[in-house]
Amino acid sequence: MNIDLLLDKMWKMYTSYTPSANQISKLFNEEITNDHIAFRTFNTEHLSINKQAKFLEQYGYYHGGDYDFKVKKLKAIHELLCEEFSNELQNVVVEISEKTKDISPEELLLGGRKWNIDLDKYNSLAKESEYASWLYIWGFCPNHFTISVNHLENFSSLIEVNDLLKKNNFKLNTSGGEIKGSKEELLEQSSILADEMPVFFGNSKQILPSCYYEFAKRYPGKDGKIYQGFVAKSADKIFESTNKNNKPFVQLSLPSL
Ligand code: NI
After folding, report:
1. Do 56 and 74 meet the contact criterion of CB atoms below 8 Å apart?
2. Ligand 1 is an ion; residues with CB less than 5 A from it
3. pLDDT tens digits for 115-146?
């Protein structure tokens, strides 16, 4: 598989549960350049980001720092530091680890969920860690794609991009302001709130946040080079795009079959 095929596979998977991203990518009427794609995982032996990193190396990506992958399309891979959470959360991670012992590096990025889910477990994970509860229901898949505003020909600022989104009725993540970061920090970011998609816990259907689309504008540093890293404070706010509490929580039940 070449890199274009891999990215195409990732995009198809991501837009299957993030239909807004597909709609938005067409709003600009021009070719879209991706700034980065983010993934989530747990820091266990079988699921660690090192395994994902090794897989991506064959496509020319390299580990650029503790936080990011410094290449033009794919940068951030995030893993949860499981030992910093409760025994209950860690037990769920052990269960997931046991179900994914033979997981291939590619499946760690595109394999989705390989375990059954339980609503009570989801709710208790959600109280402790939005990240863990998201990973529990969606599994291994792209968490978000990001439009590089620098590469857009008809839009030069995030304000213009955000206006276009709002005009088309997309809801922005306003935590920490519509635009996170600043020119001084060399990176400005915004994102829509995650789409809401049905998730089945046995026969019970819940409507839960899936993924969001992000937008990034980068500035040159003192060396004149466009900044390629991330701003931790902004990322923290952007992550809230998948929070369950962003919109009223809708609970639906289906009759038993
Ligand atoms: Ni991002």
Report:
1. yes
2. 38, 214
3. 999 999 999 999 988 889 999 999 999 999 99
